[in-house]
Design a protein that fits this description.
four-stranded antiparallel beta sheet, about 40% strand, alpha+beta, disordered N terminus
Length: about 140
């Protein structure tokens, strides 16, 4: 076992991990906080027509505690078929960090606020991650 401290809740958390990639967050008193933090955190990809819209959507997601953090890649190229036509468009990509518990609300919020008829909202599970960061994502989205 590997032991270390996790930021959050006044520094009262510890993490205990093993080589399988599973992370258990524990309080100093030894109470389990999370059984599998990697399994709780998701990375969501969502394309937007431009960086301004991506910034507006990202702000809303974080403001509503649906995401802990959103990175915006302002310039990507998307090649796709839509309604029978081949498209080659410049877009922005949001990389959203959230939890499984917050995801249903995040997906619904994006569907209601995104300008695309069918927004790309793809949730990817994590294999591993920094225990401090995973704990922070869980804490920031816990009020959902």
């Amino acid at each position: 076992m590997i032991w270390g401290k996790v930021a959050g809740q006044g520094g009262k958390l510890q993490w205990r991990g093993c080589h399988s990639g599973k992370i258990r967050l524990m309080t100093k008193e030894g109470n389990k906080l999370r059984k599998d933090a990697c399994g709780e955190v998701l990375v969501v990809l969502c394309t937007c027509p431009d960086p301004g819209i991506a910034e507006r959507l990202a702000g809303g997601l974080v403001e509503h505690n649906l995401a802990a953090c959103v990175n915006i890649l302002p310039q990507i190229r998307s090649i796709y078929r839509w309604q029978g036509e081949l498209n080659n468009d410049s877009e922005a990509l949001m990389v959203v960090k959230t939890t499984r518990a917050a995801y249903p609300g995040l997906q619904l919020w994006l569907q209601e606020n995104h300008p695309y008829d069918v927004p790309e909202v793809l949730a990817l599970p994590l294999e591993a991650g920094s225990p401090d960061y995973l704990a922070w994502v869980i804490e920031e989205t816990a009020t959902v």
